[in-house]
Amino acid sequence: MKNIVKQKGFSLIELIVVVIIIGILAAIAIPNLISSRRSANEASAVANLRTLNTAEHTYIATGNNTSFGTFADLVAANLIDGSWTAATVVKNTYTYSLTRGGTGNIGFCATAVSASVSSGGYSYATAHPGPIYRLAGIVAPTCNAATGAITTGTIVGS
Fold first, then answer.
1. DSSP letters spanning 61-108
2. pTM score > 0.90 for this model?
3. Which CATH number covers residue 102?
4. Which of 1, 25, 39, 141 is deepest in the core (most CB within 10 A)?
5. CA distance to 43, 94, 126, per residue, from 97 (Å)
6. Which pLDDT value is given to residue 44?
7. Cα(154)–Cα(11) distance, rounded to whole angstroms?
């Protein structure tokens, strides 16, 4: 008589069921993770514009500055970190730009434009009067650097 040795382990059906369960959990979790990342990028954009607005007002209020500064001016005055030295800066999928306007650069406009709707559903702008405006999509709110008027978008913070 032969001795039958029973092997222990998982059957193919059991392994397929586990893979299917993992696939279902991933299908549920991934959209939430993408949404969380988009929200974090948007919150970062608003916070960066608040920082730029505060830095600009500090720059013009201190020292002998008679006009608002560029990114390089604000870095030189130690009001923002050294990663803002280029004319346009990319952080967390947002592209930031800063324009000055009016006679003697008496105004400014800072914008944060999302690289894509999936990485940030809104674009933002702020000017020297202070409020931050939001516009859906990847086009910045219209901003006049000389007057500080932002003609598109809704206010999301000040």
1. HSTT--S---HHHHHHTTSS-GGG-SSEEEETTEEEEEEEESTTS-EE
2. no
3. 3.30.700
4. 141
5. 17, 10, 11
6. 93
7. 58
Six-digit token pair at 140?
A: 């910045």
Tokens linked to 76: 């030189």
Place of tokens 């952080």: 91
Q: Are 55 and 79 in contact (CB under 8 A)?
A: yes
Q: How confident is the model at residue 16 (pLDDT cuts 50, 70, 90)?
A: very high
For 87-140, what is each residue's pLDDT tens digit?
A: 888 888 899 999 988 777 788 999 999 988 777 889 999 998 889 999 988 888
- C-alpha span between 150 and 131 (Å, rounded): 9
- Give the domain extent around 42: 12-157
Number of domains in the chain: 1
Q: CA 136 to CA 152: how far, in whole Å?
A: 10
In a domain, residue 40? The reply is yes
